[in-house]
Structure to design on (342 residues):
């Protein structure tokens, strides 16, 4: 009940424009009757479908319904309708739900190898992400690392490139040391900020608006898409283009349920998820630029981080790479970094 209340507060406080018609999801209701479906795929996400990497769930729903001739219904539930990510992940393992578009920071709780996408300057831009996804020797181990717990990664979408939204200008690491950052509630993020010697707190997302307003935090580790859509730029008027990682949604599915589907439906679902996810990664590139331009027009100043400053962040993160290669696998991390280096 408390988690549902928190999600409701997120809607009321963080994204008031989305709830203006008394039903934030009204425009995404299906134009067909799903009650006749032979099979249902219950798919969860905690964010808002105005973000392309979240809205993909509805595009998958509609295509699967149409191309399966109404046999398979993707019952997509964004905006915390099925609970917070930790609870949903437990339900997914148990088979109480069948799928989840998990944030990449939460997905690392399933299998440490999934944490590779959160490491600084490893998969840090759109091109590297596409290359990672298109390279079987990189993506297959990533896709299969959750199988011991009965979970498969089908694909990846996202919400843009991580940087720092702050209440005052930050153009270098020394200026960043005066900021109190909110970071995601994930061990890898905490390790990164400790290594960078920056002040941080791992606040729950629904607490962020008030924390920014009261000065409890003065910075936010997130992407321009999320900061603009959820109105964080109304207070944090500066954005430092750190560009150290891609914010991702990882499409997790219950392997037992997937294998129990008739083969034709299983192949259809996997194919459509792959095609729509690839399209959505392209949409996210476009959306990020649109949201940056909209934020600039509204008075937000964007500050590039120099190559020298980025190298400092890489050098300081050496203990993080060392610690996480033990969890991820040293050979796998080295292979990913070598394959994706410019």
């Amino acid at each position: 009940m408390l988690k549902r209340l928190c999600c409701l507060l997120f809607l009321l406080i963080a994204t008031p424009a989305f709830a203006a018609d008394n039903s934030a999801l009204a425009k995404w209701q299906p134009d067909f009757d799903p009650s006749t479906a032979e099979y249902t795929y219950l798919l969860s996400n905690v964010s808002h479908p105005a973000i392309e990497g979240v809205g993909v769930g509805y595009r998958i729903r509609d295509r699967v319904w149409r191309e399966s001739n109404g046999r398979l219904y993707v019952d997509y539930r964004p905006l915390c309708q099925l609970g917070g990510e930790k609870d949903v992940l437990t339900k997914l393992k148990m088979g109480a739900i069948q799928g989840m578009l998990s944030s990449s920071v939460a997905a690392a709780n399933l299998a440490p190898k999934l944490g590779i996408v959160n490491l600084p300057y490893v998969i840090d831009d759109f091109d590297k992400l596409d290359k990672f996804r298109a390279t079987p020797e990189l993506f297959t181990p990533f896709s299969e690392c959750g199988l011991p717990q009965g979970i498969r990664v089908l694909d990846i979408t996202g919400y843009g490139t991580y940087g720092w939204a702050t209440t005052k200008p930050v153009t270098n690491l020394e200026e960043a040391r005066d900021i109190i950052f909110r970071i995601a509630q994930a061990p890898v993020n905490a390790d990164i900020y400790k290594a960078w010697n920056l002040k941080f707190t791992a606040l729950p997302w629904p607490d962020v608006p008030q924390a920014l307003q009261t000065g409890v935090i003065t910075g936010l580790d997130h992407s321009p898409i999320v900061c603009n859509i959820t109105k964080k730029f109304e207070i944090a008027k500066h954005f430092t283009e750190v560009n150290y990682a891609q914010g991702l949604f990882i499409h997790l599915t219950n392997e037992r349920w997937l294998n129990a589907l008739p083969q034709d439906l299983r192949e259809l679902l996997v194919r459509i998820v792959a095609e729509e996810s690839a399209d959505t990664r392209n949409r996210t590139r476009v959306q990020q630029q649109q949201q940056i331009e909209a934020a600039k027009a509204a008075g937000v100043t964007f500050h590039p981080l120099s190559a020298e400053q980025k190298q400092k962040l890489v050098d300081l993160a050496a203990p993080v790479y060392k610690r996480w290669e033990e969890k991820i696998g040293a050979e796998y991390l080295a292979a990913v970094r070598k394959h994706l280096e410019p």
Observations:
- The domain at 2-159+247-293 is CATH 3.40.190.170 (D-Maltodextrin-Binding Protein; domain 2).
- The chain has 15 helices and eleven strands.
- Residues 1-6, 8-22 have pLDDT under 50 and may be disordered.
